[in-house]
Amino acid sequence: MPQQAQKADMTQKLALITGASRGLGAALAEALAPTHHIVAVARTTGALEELDDRIKAKGGSATLAPMDITVPEAMATLCRGIHDRWGQLDLWLHTAIHAAPLSPAPFVAPKDWEKSVAVNATATSVLIPYVAPLLGQTGRAVFFDDPRGGEKFFGAYGATKTAQMALARSWQAESVKTGPRVEILQPQPMPTALRARFFPGEDREALTPVQDEAARLLPLILILNDD
After folding, report:
1. Which residue positions does the secretion signal occupy (predicted)?
2. Residue 177: what pLDDT?
3. 24 CB burial (10 A radius; 0-12, 13-18, 19+)
4. How far apart are CA 157 and CA 105, in angstroms?
């Protein structure tokens, strides 16, 4: 497992964030850093290193995992590394998502559909069985909803994001008595790169800054992780 960070304090809680290099994932990584060692997963090494610098500047620590969540072998290596190094996870935040270009349903490009399925749906189905044993009975998994299913021009994104959330909700219902606890939060609209692909002419000043939204969500996440 990558060790591009200072060693975690073994008394700290451990948070895995998939999709941590930018947007809400990066903001939540920074917000959680004072109380959690962050395992930050994303494809972009440079963005992860910048995140690591910001976390260290706040006195936190992170382990960087520049990996592609659509590669099952990489995710198996990641989770095995977490098990071997720490034994368990306290928290998993799944923020990784692919925003396919907006398109009428008859014109969705096969490559855009395939990537949307791979990132938004299939990767989630691979990660859940890998991460669940690390969370055990007391850990928490948090997913972030964006209900676009059925909206015009959102076919590829809406369908695959809906599939992701349906899988998360099934896991949530199935684990009520056994754990881990699975929660679904719905962020407010933020000026992220993902949203800019959907609404390029939007007034971004009217949106909630990512850091502010992370601050709003953080108490909910910490309550979920501590109760």
Report:
1. none
2. 96
3. buried
4. 11
